[in-house]
Amino acid sequence: MSLGFRRAVSGQGAAVAVQLLVTLSFLPSLVKTQVTGVLDDCLCDIDSIDNFNNYKIFPKLKKLQERDYFRYYKVNLKRPCPFWAEDGHCSIKDCHVEPCPESKIPVGIKAGHSNKYLQAANNTKELEDCEQANKLGAINSTLSNESKEAFIDWARYDDSQDHFCELDDERSPAAQYVDLLLNPERYTGYKGSSAWRVWNSIYEENCFKPRSVYRPLNPLAPSRGEDDGESFYTWLEGLCLEKRVFYKLISGLHASINLHLCANYLLEETWGKPSWGPNIKEFKRRFDPVETKGEGPRRLKNLYFLYLIELRALSKVAPYFERSIVDLYTGNLEEDADTKTLLLSIFQDTKSFPMHFDEKSMFAGDKKGAKSLKEEFRLHFKNISRIMDCVGCDKCRLWGKLQTQGLGTALKILFSEKEIQKLPENSPSKGFQLTRQEIVALLNAFGRLSTSIKELQNFKALLQHKR
User: Fewer CB within 10 Å, N or C, the chain?
Assistant: First the structure.
């Protein structure tokens, strides 16, 4: 990932303006032609999603994410990678962020470097890059004393409910609450072999790749040869619907994360004050059809497909929250009531969307084969959630785990339609329950997708204006 520390967005003279115009001239096919029309495997068109998201649901989601119930997420950033020895930032061991213990929460987390790291750094640039990645990837764990006391009360309330399952990670002594508003998802400098290995493991070992396909599915793969990106996707058409959906979900999640980084990029840093904003060059590198050999627009279409999947899950789970027994508990009764009212309004919007993905078309074959495929689907996704503990940047790991858990919760909802329909109005159900952690992840993950689509529209408008 290009650092681009010194790039400014305006006021840099004619040379920069010319350079920007040259960059923009390569993008009209992306912003006007290729990311339009009807999506594969569903009957929804992209323009309808854009209008629904940007003008109807995005503003409400943004307000919801600022509510206390949804802004604090409990996460364990200390779990070791279960698949390989962690290599940390910049692919160098010991170049990582070490969060402070809960009893000594500072303003921010500061990482130290061992002598091994100093010996491993071959040049000043490598050291500077890694230092920058540490600073940008650090978790701001600042919490007020009132918040800490409230969390104890929230946990006590959550524990008293009859849940479908318990998440061991929430109860781990290493798990800590993180204020998502203080730790926005954006460019951190995390790159190199560590980031490549994570995505490579996700694509190559967990997506349903046919043995006849030799080329890496991982967009970060260093060698692409002469393959045309669009023709490469013909292998996907030969898979069953369920396996196509799985790949599109992962690709869509990857595209969404990349969009967040492009839209909230470190443009310049003057006197220790960073300036964040959209990076056109980085956007082009990841999504332009020419630079990606036709794959960029497909990645963006997969983003829209993932949006539809999670949107469908929200519409399906609405009856769970519409019951009077369900509270979004923080201890502030007035705020809790307002938060639930806002959430129910969002659910009403999701149910009003006219072109939902039909999940009933999945796992619809013979019962034995469908059950086996569903279990394989579930295990593959569960494995991907474990891979998130191998991410070497704390902030990237935080948002990776949250968005993965959010998608996992959405899949849990779609596979539990009968249980949701049988929910009693005034008592807990053993058939289907959501923990506070799952609820926070579900809405924040969908909020990230909603933001991605909004940011994509911003890029289109910016490019159109500059042209």
Answer: C
